[in-house]
Design brief:
The chain has 362 residues and is α+β, with helices and mostly antiparallel strands. Among the domains are: 9-68 and 334-353, Malate/L-lactate/L-sulpholactate dehydrogenase, four-helix barrel (Hypothetical Oxidoreductase Yiak, Chain: A, domain 1, Orthogonal Bundle), CATH 1.10.1530.10; 76-187 and 229-288, Malate/L-lactate/L-sulpholactate dehydrogenase, NADPH binding domain (Ribosomal Protein S8, Chain: A, domain 1, 2-Layer Sandwich). The chain has eleven helices and twelve strands. The strands form three sheets. The chain has a seven-stranded mixed beta sheet. It has a three-stranded antiparallel beta sheet with strand order 9-8-10. A two-stranded antiparallel sheet has the order 1-12. A hairpin with a 3-residue loop joins strand 2 and strand 3 (84-88). Helix 1 (13-26) crosses helix 2. The longest helix is centred in the first third of the chain and has 19 residues, at 94-112. The two termini are 27 Å apart. The structure holds nicotinamide-adenine-dinucleotide. Nicotinamide-adenine-dinucleotide binds next to strand 7 and helix 10. It holds the Pfam family Ldh_2. It comes from Branchiostoma lanceolatum.
């Protein structure tokens, strides 16, 4: 999770949403689709995952502009049973496909106890947690997975064939408390390696390998012919478990959906062909199981948070707490803090698209 910038430029949440709508509207995206994307990107930034918010806006603009992503239409249900559905995303924006799938999964969960929906023909959808949280907000357990471009090198290999394939699980506790695990299955994001390279800094162990498959603390060999390490790092520190989790995500996404999978997913930042991502959305109604789910979930979270912190630490967190703190910080200052370089980049985009610039908080 990115730390908030020190000399931050504060932008109200609603203005972040409006800005995305303006930019996407300028390239012909219908309002409903632009809003779906805008809400997802704003939420990523609000939760502190700046790599997946406004930072990626120009990518979506380009995808719509070039026709690589389809700007209008709706996903279609190809095959459906009581608790499952297979959806074709029809190459629409990722959040449009994903909202459709998660809403379908939630309806099924309320009826059948579980809704397991898998999509092919989708696109990048920002943070996985945005969708699992939709289920959690309705008292359900939500899970969400997506495959992504191959960047991760399997344990003992040299070549990246898996994406950073995120996993998200969100479960309600009491009084709007929740457990929200939302994580990549690589040790770190590619962007972090790029940042270290730009600053001329070495990278920690467990982040990446060179083209020979050997762990490297130099960013360049990782970026040029190498790749990221799975969660856990090398074999000796359990990296094969992250490798297994990335494969599990691929099983639920590209393989179950018949979309692109593993090395067949188009390379990151290329758009020579449609992405055809596979994605998976699950909603589970805890009422289908033992009564008292939320009490026990809350008790488990409280148990962890109330543990005596290790020497030098001040508190024990549960998944979702860092993002909760970030959102509270945004609320206290009346908006989301952006780095000046990010603002400059967005104002350039606004000029290029001839839309009103991003307005900072007065
Ligand atoms: N769409 C895509 O292609 C794609 C690919 C990869 C990642 N992502 C997204 O990127 C975002 C960032 O992923 P990440 O792996 O860098 O996240 P991260 O490492 O910042 O956090 C991972 C999880 O750990 C929890 N956490 C963090 N510190 C904790 C602590 N001290 N104690 C307990 N829990 C703690 C967080 O709440 C979060 O649930 C996610 O939202 C993910 O969905 C998207």
């Amino acid at each position: 999770m990115a730390a908030a910038s020190v000399a931050a430029h504060i932008v109200p949440k609603q203005e972040v949403v409006s800005f995305v709508e303006r930019c996407m509207g300028a390239v012909g995206t219908p309002v409903a689709h632009a809003t779906a994307l805008a809400q997802a990107l704003m939420t990523a930034d609000y939760r502190g995952h700046f790599s997946h918010g406004l930072n990626r806006l120009d990518m979506y603009v380009q995808d719509i502009r070039s026709g690589m992503t389809v700007k209008d239409g709706e996903p279609t249900v190809v095959n459906e049973r009581a608790g499952t559905a297979f959806v074709n995303g029809n190459n629409l924006l990722g959040p449009v496909v994903s909202n459709f799938c998660m809403e379908l999964a939630m309806r099924k969960a309320k009826d059948a106890g579980i809704g397991w929906v898998v999509a092919c023909g989708s696109n990048h959808y920002s943070i996985a947690g945005y969708y699992s949280l939709k289920a959690c907000d309705q008292g359900l357990v939500g899970m969400c997975f997506t495959n992504t471009s191959p960047l991760v090198v399997p344990t003992r290999a040299r070549k990246p064939v898996l994406g950073t394939n995120p996993i998200s699980v969100a479960a309600p506790g009491k009084e709007s408390d929740s457990f929200v695990l939302d994580m990549a299955t690589s040790t770190c994001a590619l962007g972090k390696v790029e940042l270290h390279d730009r600053k001329g800094l070495p990278i920690p162990t467990s982040w990446g390998v060179n083209s020979a498959g050997r762990e490297s603390t130099e960013p360049k060999p990782v970026l040029q012919g190498g790749g990221l390490m799975p969660l856990g790092g090398s074999e000796v520190t359990g990296g094969y478990k992250g490798y297994g989790l990335a494969m599990m995500v691929e099983l639920f996404c590209g393989i179950l959906s018949g979309g692109a999978y593993g090395p067949n997913v188009r390379r990151w930042k290329t758009n020579d062909r449609v992405a055809n991502l596979g994605q998976c959305f699950v909603a589970i109604d805890p009422e289908a199981f033992a009564p008292g789910f939320q009490d026990r979930m809350q008790d488990m979270m409280d148990c962890c948070r109330n543990l005596e912190p290790a020497e030098g630490e001040t508190e024990v967190l549960v998944a979702g707490d860092p993002e909760r703190k970030h959102m509270a910080m945004c609320d206290a200052q009346g908006g989301i803090p952006y780095h000046v370089n990010q603002i400059t980049h967005l104002q350039d985009l606004a000029k290029q698209l001839e839309v009103a610039p991003l307005k900072e908080k007065k």
